[in-house]
Design a protein that fits this description.
The complex is a heterodimer. The termini of chain A are far apart. Chain A is α+β, with helices and mostly antiparallel strands. Chain A has 5 helices and 3 strands; from the N terminus they run H-E-E-E-H-H-H-H. Chain B is 39% helix and 13% strand. A 7-stranded mixed β-sheet of chain B has the order 2-8-7-6-5-3-4, with helices on both faces. A 4-stranded antiparallel β-sheet of chain B has the order 9-10-13-12. A two-stranded parallel ribbon of chain B has the order 1-11. In chain B, helix 7 links the parallel strand 5 and strand 6. In chain B, helix 3 packs parallel to helix 9, helix 4 packs parallel to helix 5 and helix 10 packs parallel to helix 14. Classes of the chains: A alpha+beta, B alpha/beta.
C-alpha cells in the first residue's frame, strides 16, 4: 500500500493527539469503532460559551489512514461552531487525504467520531440528542 | 554479507529469501552455454542438461531422505500442492473421496481442496488446530472415515512457524493405509525433514524459500510401500515419470539442487544462527515492551519465525512506522481482503490481536546488527503509537476492554 503525502504527514506529525477531561461539561467525547475491526477512534471537543469548538483532541487505534483521518478531523473542527462541524462529511476527508477506496471506511469513522463527540456535548447541555451513530462508552 | 540494502533490514524470509550467490554461480552456465533440453537424447547439449538435472535431483532427495527417483520437479510449492491433492483425488476416485486437512494450511492446499469440493470430487474435513496452531494425531484419527483417501497437513506454518506432529500423523496414515501429503515448503532447510521417519507419501517444497530461485519447486512422490501414482495435472510430453509434463527448467532445477546441497552442508551452522538471532530479537523487544503476545507454539516452532502481537497497536500503522524494516503483518489492512489473518483467527487469538501482529522471519543472511536495529525501531514505534492509542489509555485507566460495548463496525 502506498500512502499519499498528506496521510504520511498526519501519521508522522499527528495534530492534536491527547485527551480532554471527559467529566468537564463543556467537553464532548466520541468513541467509535471496535478493536476487532482494527479501528477505534476517540475524538473530543471543548466548546466555549459562544458555541465555538475551541479545542479538539484525538487518540486512534488503527491504520495510518485512520490516524490521518482523525488527526485531520480535529484540525477541521477547531474554530468551527457546533453546527458548522456537523457539516463535515467523510467525502471531504477522502478528498483531502486522497484515500483509496479500500480506506474510505477510515473517513466514515472520523465523521462518526465528530458526530458522536458533538452528541455527547449536546446531551450534557440538556439539548435533545441528534441521530448520529452510537458511541461506545466504557 | 547481509540482506541489508542501504538502511533496509530484511526480516521477511518466510515470504522469500535472497538467493545465495553460490546458487547463482551454479546456475549461470545453464542459461547460455549449457542451454540444452534435458529431454534431448541425441546430442551432448541434451546430455549435459540431463546430467545437471539428475545431479540436482540427487541433492534435493538427499536433503529430505528420499531417493532421487522420487523427486518430481515443478514450478514451485503451489504447483506441488495442487498436483499432490488433485492428483491423489483423481487417481483414487474409485476408493473414496474424503480428504482431511486443517484450517491453517497454505491457500494452495485450502483452495485446491475447496475446488475439488465444489466439483463434487472430494469431501473435505478442515480440522481446527489448538491455540498453538497444532493438530494432534487423535484429532486426525477421529476424523477418519472408511472412504478417507488423503491426509494433507503442512509440516510448518508460514505465518506462525508452528510444527505439526507430522511423524505421529504419518504413522497413523501408514497404519490405516491412507496417503499422507505434507506441504514442507517452510520446514525444509529449517528443521530436519526425513520422509522415511515422517512416513509421508508426498512432500511439497520450493526453491525460493531456501535461498534458491523463484519459479522452481519439487514434489516428493513415494515409489515403494506404497507406490504412489498421481493423475497428472499438466499434460504433454510425459516428463517426470508422466506426472508433470513440460520442458524442464534446467537452470532453475540446478539452482534448487544447489540450494538443497548447501542447506544440507550448512544445516548445523544455519540452525545455530537462526535460533540465536531469533532469541536475541525476542529478548530485546520483550526487554523494552509490555503486552507483547507470542502467536504460535513456544515449543514446536520453526527456529526462523517470531510472530508477535503488540496489543493496542494496529499492525499496518506499526509497519508504516518502521519503513526500513521489511516484515509482514496479520492485520487486515495489509491484505487485499480486509480480513485479518485466517491463521491467527483459527488459533482463537482474537481479531484485535490478529490486527496487532507482526511476523519476523530470520534468514541465512540476517545479522545481529539487523536484529538489533529492527527491534529498536519496532520498540520506538510501538511506544509512539501506544501514546496515541485510546485502547492503551483505557487499559492504563483500569478499563477491561472486554466489558466495553463497542459501536457499529465498518
Amino acid at each position: 500500500m502506498t500512502y499519499s503525502d498528506k496521510v504520511l504527514d498526519h501519521y508522522e506529525h499527528p495534530r492534536n493527539v491527547g485527551s480532554l477531561d471527559k467529566a468537564d461539561p463543556t467537553v464532548g467525547t466520541g468513541i467509535v469503532g471496535a478493536p476487532e475491526c482494527g479501528d477505534v477512534m476517540k475524538l473530543q471537543i471543548k466548546v466555549n460559551e459562544q458555541g465555538v469548538i475551541e479545542d479538539a483532541k484525538f487518540k486512534t487505534f488503527g491504520c495510518g489512514s485512520a490516524i490521518a483521518s482523525s488527526s485531520l478531523a480535529t484540525e477541521w473542527v477547531k474554530g468551527k461552531t457546533v453546527d458548522e462541524a456537523l457539516k463535515i462529511r467523510n467525502t471531504d476527508i477522502v478528498q483531502e487525504l486522497s484515500l483509496p477506496p479500500v480506506k474510505i471506511h477510515c473517513s466514515v469513522l472520523a465523521e462518526d467520531a465528530i458526530r458522536a463527540a458533538l452528541n455527547d456535548w449536546k446531551s450534557k447541555q440538556g439539548a435533545p440528542q441528534g441521530t448520529g451513530p452510537t458511541d461506545a462508552k466504557a | 554479507m547481509s540482506t541489508t540494502d542501504g538502511n533496509l533490514i530484511y526480516l521477511d524470509n518466510n515470504a522469500t529469501t535472497r538467493m545465495d550467490p553460490r546458487v547463482l554461480e551454479a546456475m549461470l552456465p545453464y542459461f547460455c552455454e549449457k542451454f540444452g533440453n534435458a529431454a534431448s537424447r541425441s546430442h551432448k547439449y541434451g546430455w549435459d542438461a540431463e546430467e545437471a538435472v539428475e545431479t540436482a535431483r540427487g541433492h534435493v532427495a538427499a536433503l529430505i531422505g528420499a531417493s532421487a527417483k522420487e523427486i518430481v520437479f515443478t514450478s514451485g510449492a503451489t504447483e506441488s500442492d495442487n498436483l499432490a491433492i488433485k492428483g491423489t483425488v483423481e487417481m483414487l476416485a474409485d476408493k473414496g473421496k474424503h480428504v482431511i486437512t486443517c484450517t491453517t494450511e497454505h491457500k494452495a492446499v485450502i483452495d485446491s481442496c475447496k475446488y475439488l469440493e465444489s466439483k463434487g470430487a472430494a469431501d473435505v474435513t478442515f480440522l481446527d488446530p489448538d491455540k498453538f496452531g497444532r493438530v494432534s494425531r487423535e484429532q486426525v484419527e477421529k476424523a477418519l472415515r472408511p472412504d478417507t483417501i488423503l491426509i494433507t497437513l503442512m509440516a510448518a506454518n508460514n505465518e506462525i512457524g508452528t510444527l505439526h506432529p507430522v511423524a505421529e500423523i504419518g504413522a497413523l496414515a501408514k497404519e490405516k493405509g491412507i496417503w499422507f501429503h505434507t506441504d514442507a515448503t517452510q520446514a525444509v532447510a529449517k528443521v530436519p525433514v526425513d520422509v522415511e521417519a515422517w512416513k509421508v507419501d508426498m512432500a511439497s517444497m520450493s526453491g525460493h524459500k531456501i535461498y534458491g530461485p523463484k519459479g522452481v519447486g519439487a514434489l516428493y512422490v513415494r515409489r515403494r510401500n506404497p507406490r504412489v501414482r498421481l493423475a497428472p495435472q499438466m499434460h504433454g510430453g510425459g516428463h517426470e515419470r508422466g506426472m508433470r509434463s513440460g520442458t524442464l527448467n534446467v537452470p532453475g532445477i540446478v539452482g534448487l539442487g544447489e540450494a538443497c546441497r548447501l542447506a544440507k552442508q550448512d544445516f548445523e551452522k544455519d540452525q545455530a544462527k537462526y535460533k540465536a538471532l531469533r532469541e536475541r530479537l525476542e529478548a530485546r523487544i520483550r526487554g523494552k515492551l509490555d503486552h507483547v503476545e507470542l502467536n504460535g507454539s513456544p515449543e514446536w516452532r520453526l527456529p526462523t519465525t517470531l510472530n508477535l502481537s503488540f496489543a493496542y497497536v494496529e499492525g499496518e500503522s506499526l509497519i508504516m512506522g518502521v519503513p526500513r524494516v521489511a516484515v509482514s503483518s496479520g492485520s487486515a489492512c495489509t491484505s487485499a481482503s480486509l480480513e485479518p489473518s485466517y491463521v491467527l483467527r483459527a488459533l482463537g487469538v482474537g481479531d484485535e490481536l490478529a490486527h496487532s501482529s507482526i511476523r519476523f522471519s530470520i534468514g541465512r543472511f540476517t545479522t545481529e546488527d539487523d536484529v538489533d536495529r529492527a527491534a529498536d525501531e519496532i520498540i520506538a514505534t510501538v511506544n509512539r503509537l501506544r501514546a496515541m492509542s485510546p485502547l492503551y489509555e483505557m487499559v492504563k485507566e483500569g478499563v477491561d476492554l472486554k466489558t466495553v460495548k463497542w459501536g457499529a463496525s465498518h
